[in-house]
Specification:
The protein is α/β, with parallel strands linked by helices. Helix content is 36%, strand content 12%. Helix 2 crosses helix 3 and helix 2 runs parallel beside helix 12. The radius of gyration is 18 Å and the shape is globular. This is Aldo/keto reductase.
Length: 327
């Protein structure tokens, strides 16, 4: 496993790490036993960073991470997120009292004394423009409850706004072969500011694994069923904003990336790691097998300049105009 500097924090994190939304809930049937095995398999392979949130299974993924990392608290970094357990449009959700309560609740579930990274969880741009929440996070940092803080954003505009705050250490952005917009402006500016980039939704909710057909049926409690058109939250969180059938069609055009790389999953993750602005890519998982397939991405063949240009052209010509919602 290789490690990269996580922005202006004092942490070096595994370039391939894991998100824990899927093992918390809203991705169909899960098994805690299998989830814990997956977390241990990842740590055995050198993964030292995991991303979670208080709303993933109403705190369940945080509790699973507490179990898996018991006794390894100084070696395994955990990032969590807050605000979506409340009304994200209400300024009171970002008050010192509310944010402190979110922080302390996550600390209790994670069984830790300090959060390594505390992230605002996709807040409206009005909250970011107001900026009061950053003052609250500064206080929590001074109190020692959090080591660093960052923001998970939906759009490039939101990311650029966050870069104006000198104490934001990280940005978490949707970035994959289907979502290349951050490359042009956001990534260069983040590098200049020393802000780390965490790439989320790296497989476009599974589209970039190449395993789906247009007639695939998701379980009713899977967000890929109930949020296909943004019914529950931002449409970009599901299939990177593509309509499912269009996404399947586009993923079929990308089968070539798996040549000499084992699978589309590994190739898609490797493509993300080819960008030096990325601190870590954080795919999700539900099984040990998925963990192992994701881990293999770090060792597969690099993309040539010609292949990178081909994928850039593919995005501009075939994908860009099909993405729904602001991004």
């Amino acid at each position: 496993m290789k490690y990269r500097q996580l922005g202006k924090t004092d942490m070096k994190v595994s370039e391939l790490s894991f998100g824990t939304w899927a093992i918390g809930g809203a991705w169909g049937t899960t098994s805690d036993e299998e989830a814990l095995k997956g977390l241990h398999r990842a740590m055995d392979a050198g993964v030292n960073f995991f991303d979670t949130a208080d709303v993933y299974g109403d705190g369940h993924s945080e509790e699973l991470l507490a179990k898996a990392t018991k006794g390894k608290e100084s070696d395994i970094y955990i990032a969590t997120k807050f605000c979506r357990a409340g009304d994200i449009h209400d300024p009171n959700t970002y008050s010192e009292k509310a944010v402190t309560e979110y922080c302390e609740a996550s600390l209790k579930r994670l069984e830790r004394d300090q959060l390594d990274l505390f992230q605002i969880h996709c807040p409206p741009i009005e909250i970011l423009k107001d900026g009061h929440v950053f003052e609250v996070l500064d206080k929590l940092q001074q109190q020692g409850k959090i080591r660093n803080y960052g923001v998970s954003v939906e759009t490039v505009e939101e990311g650029l706004l966050c870069l104006e705050n000198p104490n934001v250490s990280t940005l978490q952005v949707i970035f994959n072969i289907f979502r290349q917009k951050p490359i042009t402006e956001l990534f260069p500016k983040a590098k200049v500011k020393g802000v780390g980039i965490l790439a989320r939704v790296p497989l476009a909710s599974g589209l970039l694994t190449g395993k789906f057909t247009s007639n695939h049926q998701f379980e009713s409690d899977d967000h890929r069923q109930f949020n296909q058109n943004g019914e529950a939250f931002n449409v970009g969180e599901t299939f990177a904003g593509l309509a499912f059938n269009k996404g399947v069609e586009l993923s079929n055009q990308l089968k070539w990336i798996a040549e000499d790389r084992g699978s589309m999953t590994r190739a898609s993750l490797k493509w993300i790691l080819e960008h030096d602005a990325i601190s870590s890519v954080i795919p999700g998982f539900k099984t040990v097998k998925q963990v192992e397939d994701n881990l293999a991405a770090v060792d597969v063949k690099n993309f040539s300049n010609e292949e990178m240009e081909r994928l850039e052209d593919f995005y501009k010509q075939e994908v860009h105009d099909n993405i729904r919602g602001p991004y």
